[in-house]
Amino acid sequence: MDFKKVSTFIAGVLWLITIFSGHVLANNQTESPTESVSQQSFKIAIYQQNYPYQYLNSTGQPSGIFIDFWRLWAEKQGVDISFHGYSWAEGLAAVANQQVDFHAGLLPSDTRKHQLLMSNGLYPHDSFVYIDSKVQDAITLSQIAPYKVGAVNGLVNLEILTANNNISVQLFQSRPELYDAVLNGELLAFVEQGELDNSYPRIKELGAIFPKYKRLNYFTGDYSAAVANDNVELLNYINQGLAKITLAERVDIEKKFLNMAPEGDVLNLGFAGNLPPYMGYSASGQPQGLFIDMWRLWAKHTGHQVNFVGDSLNRSFTQLVRGSLDAHIAYTSVFDENSGLQKSAKVYSLSSQVFVSNRLPNITSLEQLNGKVVGVFKAAPYVDSVTKQYPEINYRMFSELAEMIAAAERGEIDAAISEVETMQVKLVNANLQGLFYLLDQPAFPIDIFAVVAKGDTQLMRDIEQGFASIPRKDLHMLESIWLKEHANSHFSLLEPKIPLTAQQQHWVQENPVLKVGITKDWEPLEFIGENGQPLGINRDVIESVTQSAGFELEFLAYDNWAALVAGFRDNEIDLILGVSSDNSRAPDFDFTDSYWQMPWSIIYRRILGRINSLTDLNGKTLAIVKGYQLTNWVKANYPEIDVVLVNSTTEGVLAVQQGFVDGFVEGLPVASKLAKQESIVPLEVAVVPEFPSQDSRIGIHKGNHVLQSILNQGLSTIDDKKRQEIFNRWFDINIHSGWDKRLVTRIATQVGFVIFAIILFVVLWNRRLHKEVGRRKALEMQMKHMATHDELTGLANRTLIKTQMESAIALHQRQGLKLAVMFVDLDGFKAVNDKYGHDFGDVVLQQVAERLTSCVRKSDTVCRFGGDEFVVLLTSLNNKEEAAFIAEKIINLIAKPFIGNQIKATLGASIGISVFPDDSDSAADLFKMADNLMYRVKSSGKNNYSYL
């Protein structure tokens, strides 16, 4: 990808647009007065501690964005420069007294504008208040008013912070003094003009405690050079040189100092820093989360190197437009078409659900909240549909999740609609997990897109093809690590696998790899991506079908359809995709069931006018790919059309563009994609009513009925929703048609409509079958639950707890947090069970389960390990003492009498506790250690707890 060309293109567009709240990018291409000065050498004042703009490095040499910038300016002007370090006050005085010629970079203020002349803008700039991560989600400046805020003496525009927000500031003479005070715990907030100083020895510790995502912007402006008040000639000369420096050159300098990779093969990817578990920072300040890992996997598959840059969405978008960032990894809402940005194809989908306050028990639907106050995000893509569908609810709009949670804690809202996983993490972190309960329905989907600069079509293509090439199982594995609930998974696998007979299982074992033939250039149905990987609708279908049976796939690519069919007949491959059944293929082929019906369409030059019917082509030439079964149908039914055979789709489109034929027949998805490609000759796509739809099937070798039955079973697992998801991933319609436009859209977007209609007909006319399906689904769900849960108590069983332990360890390892395993054994249960019988024993175990569950958060897990042994998994702990607190709580609750069947009994609890990572990083070792510690308690008096 030529990033330099992209940056240059954006630069040409952006000279006259506003950036950062109306500030004009001052280095525009309008002409400055042509000035010349007699001197050939200039002294430039710099502030010594203004990283990354101007500072002295570890060797005492001037360094920073401004240093490199003025060196470039001097080169373009053909002059020499030297840099001289000062404090803020000394530097201003040196310029005013003309001890130096100008200052390298200052932010404007009323005072400075009266004392000095300011040049055109050098770089846009934000000033921030950095906030300690322990301060719970401060999202406005007024919320930090209770805290004293540190700042370096001499920073401009501090009055904006103090006057408007009632904030008191403690001044320090230097950045190191300020940083030392912060790390000593003297301050929970401090002011910075931009980034933290990387030269500070404890910068990693500082960055981890005061992460970027916590900082609040309090001032936006442009850095400018400054000259003495009467030196207009020099000011004009400076501006003349500034106009010679392009935006792309400015961005290249910026990247060097803002933790961004230089231009080349490394992509700078922006992300939001406070949206766990999807994207954020670890305790050590490293980017982490599901989306971060997804993009790392994308980078592996595409061969790109990536560098993650966390910041606010607004700043990331500004950097995208300027060219400092190449893409933002996750965005949901619609933005202004004039923003200079564009969305890629969807890379993920989230779900928002309704969290209801515990003050309103027994709410089961959103309609029951009519007249109540429900919080929603004003930028959420579903806001309009929700407010229209439920008009009697009082909605309160929020910009931030922290605002919504704070309002709920104060009792100002009765429910909240929010993305599930992030909301649950935020509630746990704020110790408010008991504030809400979650409704299963309704669920509001949120599509996630990558965002790139408008015009960067190559990166757009790389993103779309890269994600399409990642095996679904790999993405699902990442979800199992990061997401708490399987139901929130987007990349769900086909579970359970299709049941195979003994004969089918034997066939799969004997033939574990299927060779699949595809054509190289039949996009979006099947094609070869830039990195050599097979892509497209057919590839996604066959992967879904064969994964459920346990096959591995080997793809072989052919230049055209005729070569593909020839390779099949020569036994080079086992399967052909997207093939239709007809008599001419009967000797060599057997076919699976149809997985959708694809309408045929005609690609033609716009100059021909509108094609509404095949009769419009009478006396004209129509190209069709060799081997397409439609050829004979056209010849038989429309003999006045001159049919020309071509070898491939590419050849057919070129024949249309060059005027050798009047039209070219292709499947609608392929035609739509081809018509959108750049071409000197504008093309149109028509769907005419005469064409029969093509049944898309999988072709296999004649007589292979076992494989045919396996593939048909696999196809049956692809429901309408899954089929539509695959189709939408690859196909955008852009057509003109002789049919009713709504009919065409329905055909194009609702693939498999005929199958759906048949299923609907059967369902409507055979209610008994419908009920049987319902019973079987219910039985299937019940069996799944029984496999992972204890039948008596409803708690997780040992199978589920072990699985959750593995996932929890992986997650906590990334986050730098602790988890605890508690083995709980009931003291005296055997005697109670023997004395009062198993029925009462079962009642006691059920009550124990309820008491244990009441002691922990929803994010924790309680398991019946067997008999009277229970396991409690506590997550997201800061220290062992938190687990000890829960253990004491459990012991006190278990000590209360158990009552049932007019019987009363008392028990005790012995508890062993192991902690990750202090005691071990292995799930098996943690279980074993907790078990041993529990027996140590048993042997030393019972009814207590123990940990190392």
Automatic annotation (TrEMBL):
Top-rank taxon, per record: Bacteria
Q: What is this protein called?
A: Diguanylate cyclase
Look up the record and name the cofactor or cofactors this protein needs.
Answer: Mg(2+)
| UniProt KW Zinc keyword | no
- The regions listed as transmembrane in this protein's record are 747-766
Residue runs in coiled coils? none
Tell me the ranges covered by the GGDEF domain, including all copies.
817-948
Name the keywords, alphabetized: Membrane, Transmembrane, Transmembrane helix
Q: Does the keyword Acetylation apply?
A: no
GO molecular function terms attached to this record? catalytic activity
